[in-house]
Design a protein that fits this description.
Structural class: alpha+beta
Distance between the termini: 45 Å
Mean pLDDT: 86
Helix content: 10-25%
Number of helices: 3
Shape: globular
Number of domains: 1
Strand content: 35-45%
Number of strands: 17
């Protein structure tokens, strides 16, 4: 499967910054720490069963700087998952890790770890089917990676776990083409989420399964991740965006 990437970064920079600082800020909230899951549920709120992907955050998770007092659910477009600077590492000299993440030895790699970060301001993100009754499903629940939009158009996203013998099981990887994760209904698990560059990422996921009475059900949603750059890099990014905007305005005026 070919992962579609964003156009040239200079062309899209004003759009991305505008979306992040204006549109997304007005419509979505920032999840910065605490436990939550990208989950799937089958719910009937009066108009029939709805099978849907969403973010399910647990008490104590921080959203827009405030801890939640109780469980809260957010639509994919209502939440931005923060990947703070403290998650950035220099990729180790490991051929298997490079093959899956796309980060060569010494290159930047941001990782939302499968291990609980404790009190660190990092979201602890799982993938869950625990809202589904396992007796209602005749198949596993699949999660399929769709379109991935990286900040530059050439970054790589990956999702993996250690295999227990020194290697890795990559379920998603825009570097090697892996795009499927299967789970039993009624469970939840944690994984390493990897990003090779800073900026705004859009990750499309499709979930599907076969219900004993409703048949085959599926839903596709796009989740947003904010991968935090070095402060100097962010300042440079804003500066380049300003120059592009000024240049665009000047050309527009010149054409009048």
């Amino acid at each position: 499967m070919t992962m579609q990437q964003a156009p040239h970064p200079i062309k899209t920079l004003p759009i991305l910054l505008g979306a992040l600082l204006a549109g997304q800020a007005a419509q979505a909230q920032l999840w910065t720490s605490g436990h939550g899951d990208i989950g799937v549920a089958l719910e009937d709120e009066g108009s029939g069963p709805e099978f849907h992907l969403h973010a399910h955050l647990h008490p104590g998770a921080a959203v827009d700087g405030s801890p939640l007092a109780a469980d809260e659910e957010y639509g994919a477009g209502q939440i931005i998952i923060n990947v703070p600077l403290l998650t950035k590492i220099s990729a180790p000299d490991n051929a298997a890790l490079t093959a899956g993440t796309g980060a060569a030895t010494g290159e930047d790699l941001w990782i939302l770890s499968q291990n609980n970060p404790g009190s660190d301001p990092v979201p602890f993100v799982g993938i869950a089917t625990e809202e589904l009754d396992p007796t209602d499903w005749t198949t596993d629940i699949s999660f399929t990676l769709g379109v991935v939009t990286s900040p530059s158009g050439s970054g790589h996203f990956s999702l993996w776990q250690p295999d227990g013998v020194g290697g890795f099981n990559f379920f998603f990887s825009t570097r090697n083409g892996n795009n499927t994760l299967d789970q039993l209904a009624g469970v939840h698990d944690h994984f390493n989420f990897g990003f090779t560059e800073a900026g705004t990422w859009l990750i499309e996921l499709t979930t599907a399964g076969t219900h004993i009475t409703e048949g085959t059900l599926s839903d596709t949603q796009t989740f947003t991740f904010n991968v935090v750059p070095e402060p100097s890099a962010f300042a440079a990014l804003v500066g380049v965006a300003a120059l592009v905007l000024v240049s665009t305005r000047r050309r527009t005026k010149a054409c009048r």
